[in-house]
Amino acid sequence: LEVLFLKIEIPLSKFYDFFMPTPVVLVSTMSKDGIPNLAPFGLVIPISFNPPMIALGIRDNRKTHKNIMETKEFVVNLPSTDQVKLVNKSAEPCSQINKFERVGLTPLQSVSVKTPSIKECKVHFECTLEWTKNAGDHTVIVGKVVAISVDDDLPAAEKTALMDKMGPLYYGLMTYYDLGKVLVERKNLS
Ligand SMILES: Cc1cc2nc3c(=O)[nH]c(=O)nc-3n(C[C@H](O)[C@H](O)[C@H](O)COP(=O)(O)O)c2cc1C
Questions:
Q1: Is 64 in the pocket of ligand 1 (CB under 6 A)?
Q2: Cα torsion at 11, 176, 131, 110 (round to 10°)?
Q3: Alpha carbon of residue 148 to chain centroid
Q4: Which atom of ligand 1 is nearest to the CA of 61?
Q5: For the CA of 59, the nearest atom of ligand 1
Q6: Across-strand partners of 178?
Q7: 23 phi and psi, to 5 degrees?
Q8: Which DSSP category does 41 fall into?
Q9: What are the pLDDT digits (tens) for 80-118?
Q10: Ligand 1 close to Cβ of residue 43 (< 6 A)
Q11: Minimum mean pLDDT among 5-9, 52-56, 72-76, 87-91: which range?
């Protein structure tokens, strides 16, 4: 028998510290009155290939949560490492009506949903809401991807070239990462 108690037991509250870094997405949504919104989310899983589906973990006090419940749609936009400041800024609580304007991002007409995509992002997954379920302090929100649009230099690129061109942004323990390397700590961005 292995001796289990040689391992160190740690508080359950530390559980998420070991799931890092995870990719960051910018989710754009629209209120029922047609006001667009966006925010970064790290609890994101591509959960089905066919049909393509994405699962997000979103607290029920987020405006993003409210908007998705109202309109039954959202867009998952992939930011790049060079947009880290914008991403971080879009997480700040915002009383201003339109977060696109406040952060300085541009709404882009989507192909299949009314919710705008984010022009400055290179990849957009347009989603319709499939189902939601409460999971502890977050709601699991599953969307079906109904259209994908990308920058025109992306489809031809393969593997590392694709990765280089997308420059995906990662996050964990209050720090942003560039494919596993520290990019910048959040405290240095304010
Ligand atoms: C990198 C990063 C990842 C985040 N991931 C999540 C997440 O997965 N779920 C969540 O509910 N909030 C997450 N947040 C916090 C929200 O982005 C933040 O509360 C934001 O203000 C919500 O905006 P909204 O109220 O306009 O939807 C994250 C914040 C950052 C900076």
A1: yes
A2: 170
A3: 15
A4: 25
A5: 11
A6: 169, 181
A7: -65, 150
A8: E
A9: 999 999 999 999 987 767 899 999 999 999 999 999 999
A10: yes
A11: 5-9
